[in-house]
């Protein structure tokens, strides 16, 4: 490909750059993931795309290229639909409750696959918390499938195992100083074909809800979409977000925003405090935050376990 020509098109600044069509984006991202784009041009393309912002057609092309590189897994037979949870941000100011959400979903009997980074020098990752909880990361396709089939606990697959090419793109952040398209794409990964899984997805600002919802409709994906908590998908215990279900090309609101006062949270964001809080919630020693319970109800509806939120509430009350 003529990378110089492409940079000239996408690198003219936010107001004058031209978007690539889907086929161009697919071809370009295939080469970016294959590692054949020279470093200088790769850096230029990544910065240009960050300044311009990826169009919907570009994201669809990039996503198709990424899908070709993702390690496939099979949904466990005769069990509920798997829930796929991305975790790429970790704890910045408050404790990371993504592992708690995953563990609770497993207790409800749903297969749960969590994927994300192993470490982040600036954040406390879900991987660190899972390790402290005794959840061993899968290191290859066979181990991930065996853990998934066995059930009982969430399966954590590092992105370096699930999609090594995307992991390499993510790592460029530490050389370039800014994120790139891969940080958006990684959160959309599912190793399951078609609508065989329910993806949890979050946005940083409410205005992006419709944009991401459109993406899931375009790829015929099934997802729960909400405003995230510091980039993670778990519901903020103090400010439960509006949650949307996208399925079969239709978007609906499952639960509206709620504010909760006097919510008990982990004493700090560190691993020890977060693990202690998580274990107490799992054992019944501590009340599970209502926002997380609400999110579990949405997951039950989204995965087809219950027909509506009231039925989901009854299931939650029986288990917890």
Automatic annotation (TrEMBL):
Example GO molecular function: anthranilate phosphoribosyltransferase activity
Q: Name one GO biological process term.
A: L-tryptophan biosynthetic process
InterPro entries attached to this UniProt entry = Anthranilate_Pribosyl_Tfrase (IPR005940), Glycosyl_Trfase_fam3_N_dom (IPR017459), Glycosyl_Trfase_fam3_N_dom_sf (IPR036320), Nuc_phospho_transferase (IPR035902)
Every copy of the Glycosyl transferase family 3 N-terminal domain together lies at 5-68
Question: Is this entry keyworded Transferase?
Answer: yes
Pfam families (UniProt xref): Glycos_trans_3N
Q: Which residues cross the membrane?
A: none
- The UniProt gene name for this protein comes to ybiB
Q: Which GO terms describe its cellular component?
A: cytosol
Q: Could you tell me the keywords of this UniProt record?
A: DNA-binding, Glycosyltransferase, Transferase
Q: What is this protein called?
A: DNA-binding protein YbiB
């Amino acid at each position: 490909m003529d990378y110089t020509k492409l940079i000239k098109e996408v690198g003219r600044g936010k107001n004058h750059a031209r978007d690539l069509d889907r086929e161009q984006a697919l071809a370009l991202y295939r080469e970016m993931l294959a590692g054949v784009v020279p470093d200088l041009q790769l850096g230029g393309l990544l910065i240009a795309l960050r300044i311009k912002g990826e169009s919907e057609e570009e994201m669809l092309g990039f996503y198709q290229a990424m899908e070709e590189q993702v390690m496939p897994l099979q949904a466990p037979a005769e069990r509920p639909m798997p829930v796929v949870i991305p975790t790429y941000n970790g704890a910045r100011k408050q404790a990371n409750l993504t592992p708690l959400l995953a563990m609770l979903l497993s207790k409800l009997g749903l297969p749960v696959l969590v994927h994300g980074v192993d470490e982040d020098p600036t954040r406390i990752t879900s991987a660190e918390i899972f390790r402290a909880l005794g959840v061993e990361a899968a290191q290859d396709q066979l181990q991930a499938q065996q853990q998934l089939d066995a059930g009982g606990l969430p399966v954590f697959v590092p992105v370096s195992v699930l999609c090594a090419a995307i992991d390499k793109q993510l790592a460029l952040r530490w050389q370039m100083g800014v994120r790139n398209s891969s940080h958006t794409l990684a959160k959309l990964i599912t190793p399951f074909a078609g609508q065989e899984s329910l993806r949890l997805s979050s946005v940083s600002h409410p205005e992006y809800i419709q944009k991401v919802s459109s993406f899931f409709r375009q790829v015929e994906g099934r997802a729960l979409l909400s405003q995230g908590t510091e980039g993670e998908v778990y519901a903020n215990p103090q400010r439960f977000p509006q949650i949307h279900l996208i399925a079969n090309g239709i978007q609906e609101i499952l639960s509206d925003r709620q504010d909760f006062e006097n919510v008990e949270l982990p004493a700090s964001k560190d691993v020890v405090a977060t693990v202690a809080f998580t274990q107490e919630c799992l054992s019944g020693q501590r009340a599970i935050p209502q926002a997380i319970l609400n999110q579990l109800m949405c997951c039950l509806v989204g995965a087809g376990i219950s027909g509506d939120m009231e039925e989901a509430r009854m299931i939650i009350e029986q288990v917890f």
